């Protein structure tokens, strides 16, 4: 498009207008970053990831427990316990975010406050006859024999064992928490509006679930200190580049306070 | 889990086994990286992003045009043309990947070879009454008045104008190319197996579409040189951390050759 | 299953219990029938189908307009206007339910009360390249050249022309109002709880939409006097056998009163 | 629409054209009916429902087992065994179609020929906390305490027990076999093209599954002699009015031959 004479002012005004409008949404997470880095390390993004309780960024956060579901993705031994096939590559990031301890505490609080707790495990039969993909992460799951149902590997981590009143979502054979499960059906039945997501992996199943939940009209919350990925860099990148477009980025401490 | 005596060997063998299996899938992209960096700069990942025609990494790639759809996401003036509200923040990455020129060439070749061309524009009525989200990227779209139907901003970029035989996918109001559209219906009707994705933004609509397409069983291909994001870092991060889990990462030159 | 000694009483009690429980849901519509036929013709189901204003069966029906959408399926000339390709086979049932007049009045009232009005047209390009099905109703649509976009046939019936504030749902290429459209996205954005469905055909697109809406957790209402099918028998059968399992069967007069 | 002078011929030609085109699809089932009734009782629709092996209507039916799935919906004691809460109201239609024996034979043949066998059971925890619906068939399921997991009622009928190589679809909490399950994911992974549906109830879960399968692009087959409803009238109405729009109506004998 060639610019005509006299369009200069309109263009500048337009650039200012998109700068204001677009920054609100897509660049929201960058703003947090930039702000944080300028404010200094005591209130930085990395602190939020570490779930520093002294860094309350969003004191406005409020959640009605009756309309809120905590969606817990794949807190299974395969990922979280020594001896699990994927524990070693996750170990560094698990320590970095301390996600098991944070998630267990948040789950307890949320349950007591009356929020619905949804556990979303993944599992496959021996040999994973459910999967035919020759490429992508599913082919790796099949070849690695991970998450085999009936084995210790597919069981919940001891600190994240469901209570009798919790809901166990069924069917998860893919990555998104919605596509191959009854999660949406169950959330709709309970008139859930807020979906708070924790689990594994930050940039795989957690991210796919976050994206679909947003698409489906839920108010979505992602938790920097209740998620982990293969490598801290992959974890940080998801929160730096993607999470803000589809969710409110927060942490377990802020959500616990939001129920009051 | 406490380790019992004698489990040492089994554990080491287990660690080796996951290392082999898991690397195949989840870490596939890292492998490419590591390989590339060891091979030297002439065959590196950055070369692939720049679509260097002298760097054929996947000489095995083959696509039957009759089973292949090129899915082109939001090649609209708002993003791609000077004067579009989101052109300025995209400009750097557009130049970096040269995605308009590459996409136009690939579209022409794919169409001639007989592949189906699906254009997936996004648009909203004045004031965007379709959107009520108070958060996330949709609220930014609403506030920014972007992609208003009937305006130049929502029109296709001149180099990416659909041909009469192309299919225009309808309904896109959200981010994923599937959720709010007839894309899946149309792909299924044509018995499409391979979905090759180009467009904008690399880590927003392109990534959501890639994730859902993989979930839905399509063989998915993402194109480093036919996509762009707000900042080269966001673009590169998607290919570094996420794309390999859900797609074969390739470029326009390789896909063009794959139709032969 | 062989009955053991002493199970007789338990079995009888069980039979009574299912009779009570199951009748509430699955056989609800039969109950209405049986009741009606015993009460005599003045308050019968057939009267409800004829939309007799003197037969208010559900004086409890209440709808908050802000949470209610009127979903209007395919009020297009192809079906509803003399000269439309499908008008002749529909004519008898259109006269039987008087659905055009009833729908126009209900739409006006619902719009004034503040309910959201969603129009869901179906249309295809010349030759219907969107459809490849060799069987079922879609193959008939393709062969018949019906609902061609840009022609009078695909336009809304004059009495059902959308107002500027109404929403036009996009993408409908299949039968269900949800699968190939942005309807669910738009309903979720507006936090709609109640979906009131009118349109065509009673046992095809209306029924598929009703079934999916129920599955997706909406409170669904079907309107005997704002729907029609190819033959009164097909219309009546849907309300007799199926509608009560997935919706509250009602009519335009009752819904108009429910907004107060 | 007022007719202008000279439109008479065009209109007549148009009426003839829709008669030809529309009959092919929407009225296909009526054609079968009319034909049958004129041909006499030996080759009638009621014979097909009774699965008379001497009435091969579709000698052209061919199915590649590798691309075909037999989808078996809710062959559970609650419906099919004496003592099940819903056995009594189903009993008449079960005897009418002889669906247990026909389904068991077809499943055995299909498995031997190499088709994929998918079992789709429905079940709920005690008290059905999965369901909140106050209306429709789900509220009846909740109130009736039907299909409780861990009880005999939710187990498969002895003649329809899955073989180890069969797939058990998970998550079914609603009516459609797709919406709340991993059925679509599993079918896509196996590149299934043909979906052959048997089970219960003809006009409830079977019909919803048939409708969604057609929408999703599968070639759908419904089996008059492997389905049953609450009352023969409800069963017959589904095949008379609805099944032909979304599927090829056939029976177990024809499908068994189609694998050769």
From TrEMBL, chains A, B, C, D:
<protein>
    <recommendedName>
        <fullName>Isochorismatase-like domain-containing protein</fullName>
    </recommendedName>
</protein>
<dbReference type="InterPro" id="IPR050272">
    <property type="entry name" value="Isochorismatase-like_hydrls"/>
</dbReference>
<dbReference type="InterPro" id="IPR000868">
    <property type="entry name" value="Isochorismatase-like_dom"/>
</dbReference>
<dbReference type="Pfam" id="PF00857">
    <property type="entry name" value="Isochorismatase"/>
</dbReference>
<dbReference type="InterPro" id="IPR036380">
    <property type="entry name" value="Isochorismatase-like_sf"/>
</dbReference>
<keyword id="KW-0378">Hydrolase</keyword>
<comment type="similarity">
    <text>Belongs to the isochorismatase family.</text>
</comment>
<feature type="domain" description="Isochorismatase-like">
    <location>
        <begin position="68"/>
        <end position="252"/>
    </location>
</feature>
<dbReference type="GO" id="GO:0016787">
    <property type="term" value="F:hydrolase activity"/>
</dbReference>
């Amino acid at each position: 498009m060639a610019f005509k004479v006299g369009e200069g002012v309109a263009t500048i005004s337009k650039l200012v207008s998109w700068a204001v409008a677009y920054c609100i949404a897509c660049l929201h997470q960058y703003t947090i970053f930039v702000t944080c880095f300028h404010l200094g390390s005591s209130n930085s993004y990395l602190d939020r990831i570490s779930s520093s309780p002294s860094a309350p960024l969003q004191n406005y956060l409020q959640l009605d427990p009756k309309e809120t579901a905590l969606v817990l993705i794949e807190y299974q031994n395969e990922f979280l316990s020594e001896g699990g096939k994927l524990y070693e590559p996750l170990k560094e990031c698990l320590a970095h975010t301390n996600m098991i301890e944070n998630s267990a505490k948040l789950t307890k609080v949320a349950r007591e406050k009356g929020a619905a707790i949804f556990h979303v495990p993944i599992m496959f039969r021996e040999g994973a006859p459910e999967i035919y993909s020759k490429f992508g992460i599913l082919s790796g799951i099949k070849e690695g024999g991970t998450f085999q149902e009936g084995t210790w590997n597919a069981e919940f981590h001891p600190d994240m064992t469901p209570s009798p009143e919790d809901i166990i979502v069924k069917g998860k054979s893919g990555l998104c928490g919605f596509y191959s499960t009854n999660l949406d059906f169950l959330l709709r039945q309970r008139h859930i509006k807020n979906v708070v997501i924790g689990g594994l992996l930050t940039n795989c199943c957690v991210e796919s679930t976050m994206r679909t939940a947003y698409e489906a009209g839920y108010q979505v919350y992602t938790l920097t200190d209740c998620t982990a990925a293969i490598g801290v860099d992959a974890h940080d990148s998801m929160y730096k580049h993607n999470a803000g477009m589809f969710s409110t980025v927060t942490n377990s401490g802020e959500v616990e306070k939001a129920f009051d």
